[in-house]
Amino acid sequence: MNIAVLPGDGIGPEVIEQAVRVIAAVAPDIALTYAPVGGTAFKAHGHPLPPATLAIARAADAILFGAVGDPDCDALERHLRPEQAILGLRKALTLFANLRPARVFAGLESHSALRPEIARAIDLLIVRELNGDVYFGEKGFRTTPSGERQGYDVMAYADSEVRRIAHVAFRAAQGRRRRVCSVDKANVLETSQLWRDVVVDVARDYPDVALEHMYVDNAAMQLVRNPGHFDVVLTGNLFGDILSDQASMCVGSIGLLASASLGERQTAHGTFGLYEPIHGSAPDIAGQGVANPLATILSAAMLLRHSLGLAAAADRIEMAVAGVLADGVLSRDLGGSAGLVETGDAVLARL
Ligand code: IPM
Ligand code: MG
User: Fold this and answer.
1) Which domain holds residue 70?
2) Number of domains in the chain
3) Can you tell me which atom of ligand 1 is nearest the CA of 68?
4) 218, 251, 284: which is the final residue of a domain?
5) CB of 86 sitting under 6 A from ligand 1
């Protein structure tokens, strides 16, 4: 078994290092192949996703990804910016299904941006489509008839793109509380009308799962009003990006949310996928040893479960993380003072 490790920029390398220590502790025989991505790769090789990195990622059983984003690169043409590394990997490897679980850890209820009694009930899974939508539609700049500069990004979804992500959501719901809330903007957007029609059609295959539809503005409101309402939230690329950051603050910190990006390709022991914390590269705190590595450690647990068939090891890691938080080992994002390495040490001690 081989994991491609892509640390990236900012705090990416340091949170990855802690996750790698955890993987080595529970599964010492796994081979790790490191490769550069993001601004780091651009600076060294002239491209945020060099062909050699893509080849290493493709050849692995799974990818552990840190974060990309570097203010030094903000002025580059879009196709050379660090973010293109993660967007390029998702697209090139057909990783269309992004799973972003959000639940409140015992003892952290008071760290939520919501009142503890509301936060306590959060246990949801955002299933976000990753290969389409306004992210990958035609985009550019043009001049209007009146001579004004105009930017445009086309939002589009094909039937088959919606169908395959809907199946992922319904299957996930079958292993949970059997409820899917499909989030769209069908009152305004044709893309969303098609989304809704296809989701209704797919739902016929899952009579045991309850389906509801919600407009994205209402979903944003319900996520803070009554987040316990949600089980599986099925949504498109853009809405899922926004709602998952919002969900992280409901949980308490963006430093706690892991994610898996899966496609259809099977490996020897599971599904090929890319695993990353949902947070970014946080250049303002990079290198200070204060970042929270738990989202990346939890992403590593998802990797072991979904791509390598090591469910017991994944459970152990998740229990260790829950234990560390219950012990009050809190990093700065959670109002505590535990450093990066100290948090990693605490997880290892628990393991
Ligand atoms: C995420 C990030 C990415 C996205 C960026 C870095 C391109 O915000 O994974 O949520 O927008 O998908
Ligand atoms: Mg995001």
Assistant:
1) 1-97+263-351
2) 2
3) 6
4) 251
5) yes
Give the CATH number, domain containing residue 230.
Answer: 3.40.718.10
At 106 the pLDDT is 87
345 catalytically annotated? no
What are 263-313's pLDDT values in tens digits?
999 999 999 999 999 999 999 999 999 999 999 999 999 999 999 999 999
Catalytic annotation on 135?
Answer: yes
Residues 17 and 71 in one domain: yes
* Residue nearest atom 4 of ligand 1, based on CA coordinates: 241
Alpha carbons 217 and 211: distance in angstroms, whole number: 18
What pLDDT is stored for residue 176 in this prediction? 97
Q: Which atom of ligand 1 is nearest to the CA of 87?
A: 7
Residue 76, in any domain of the structure: yes
The catalytic position among 135, 157, 206, 275 is 135
Question: Has this prediction a pTM greater than 0.90?
Answer: yes
Q: DSSP E strands: which ranges in 144-280?
A: 149-153, 179-184, 210-215, 232-235, 258-266, 271-277
Ligand 1 centre and the CA of 327: distance in Å?
Answer: 31
* Mode of pairing for the β-strands spanning 97-103 and 123-129: antiparallel
SS3 253: coil
What is the rounded average pLDDT of the residues 53-80? 96
Which of 231, 251, 271 corresponds to the end of one domain?
Answer: 251
